[in-house]
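[INFO] parsing input record for Diguanylate cyclase domain-containing protein
[DEBUG] input buffer:
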Amino acid sequence: MPVKPSSLRPLSLVRRLTRLNLLILAGTIFSTVLLLAAVTWHSARERHLAEAAVNTEQLALNLAASLVFLDKAAAAAELQTYAQRQDVLDLAVYQPDMQLFASQPEKVSRLWLQADSYQQLDWLQLQVRRPIRFKAETVGSVVVTESLAGLQQALLSLLLLFGLIVILALFAASRVLHLVQRKALAPVVELAELADYAARKQDYSIRGTVRRRDEVGRLTERLNELFKRIEIWQQDLQQQLQQQQQARQQLDKLAHSDHLTGLANRLYFETELPRAVAYAATEQQTLALLFIDLDNFKTVNDRWGHDAGDEVLQIVAKRMQSQLRQTDRLFRLGGDEFAVLLTDIVQPEWAMQLAERLIQSVREPMWLKNSLMPVGATVGLAFCPQDSTEAVMLLQQADQAMYQAKRAGKNTCRRFTDGED
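[DEBUG] output buffer:
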């Protein structure tokens, strides 16, 4: 039986309307996905660059001592450890004259710029250069080159997932469009506006409203799932950045702490002393530096072993710490040497009295392994600005005063006096 022409018109009109609406819907969703991909790619690249800049600054701090002492082995070990990070292509450390000091691997990328400090990126790589400073002096620079291939692969996987969801959504929409009237197209327009808003505002916490459990409702669910995935991905990325920041802070804390006593170590002391001296000189305050050397500590190590020596150091550190104010800082410089920074001293005699208390606290009976430890303390004292306004000179003066006290019979304190041996 032949089909009447009048019966072809509605079918043809429905198909044309379905194709037209699908074309508009597909164009809107795919353009939105591309815009989301572009925004996500740009944001991820910038965050990757910021993370690389933070890590490079930390690497420059870790490499300072290696450059100062020209220790290529230590620098190579530090670079090898850093090179284990994902996406790192190569690392290079340069001396001030731009001579290559150490690298990982041997052949490295060229410098993108000649500036002392910069961070640049292109579509495939990024490069960060930071100066290496030691005591406010530039001793070299470090250059980190990283690949963006992993980021591109993650974005491509996300785009493929987006494409699959969009295709499924369009398929569902094509099944429902030929059954609905013009009013039924309103939810599709709402979805398009929702996706466009999310792309412009980068707000993926919004969700579409499922008005009916039909094809359009499933399309809304798919788009909500897409937003949920992006929102979770952003949260995970932010959490990773926070964890990396916490890890960097923990590494910085470990770098400035003595693992045995828990006190600030020599590296921190060498950073803090010039700062405290400069502040005291500027603010016209009195700063006292106590250089402390334990007496008979070698005897403890030789007779009772290094484990007993470690316990002695821990006990001595706690005893001396108990004698200080909250504003005073106690450092372990290494071995059996300690230092104390006393800020804002009103009367120099107070520092001498504190030194006597420190000596007395160390000389309190100390029993280990059923034996009385024969340890004591000798203290050298120097003042800023009375004795010196230079950190290096002040430390030398306190050390000289300590040796004067040693010659005077140990277990005592001497203040630096110019002209004495």
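[INFO] Residues 1-13 have pLDDT under 50 and may be disordered.
[INFO] shutting down worker
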